[in-house]
From TrEMBL:
Protein name: Molecular chaperone DjlA
Domain of life: Bacteria
Domain Co-chaperone DjlA N-terminal intervals: 13-51
Species of provenance: Vibrio parahaemolyticus
Region entry Disordered, spans: 64-88
Length: 88
């Protein structure tokens, strides 16, 4: 199967696998090993996978702490940028 021109799909597939592995809030060593095998099969390096894992872990921590809205509880769920764009 040729992967030429399909980098976006391969990246999306890998990110789905990472999300599934991270569904319980952490990635176990066996899950990490499987992700490395999947990434290698898709043509991603270990370094590329580890960067994506770090981003996913950071995003999970941010969301579990309430994200942007948890830090700014006075804003509506739409956020101030939506209100500003509606005024334009």
């Amino acid at each position: 199967i040729s992967t030429a021109g399909r980098f976006d799909l391969l990246q999306f597939f890998l990110e789905l696998q990472i999300s599934a592995a991270f569904a319980d809030g952490s990635i176990h060593p066996s899950e990490r090993n499987v992700l490395h095998k999947i990434a290698r099969g898709l043509g991603f390096s270990s370094e590329q996978l580890e960067r994506r894992l770090q981003m996913q872990e950071a995003a999970f921590r941010f969301q579990s702490q309430g994200g942007f809205h948890g830090q700014h509880q006075g804003q509506s769920s739409g956020g101030s940028w939506q209100q500003a764009s509606q005024a334009d």
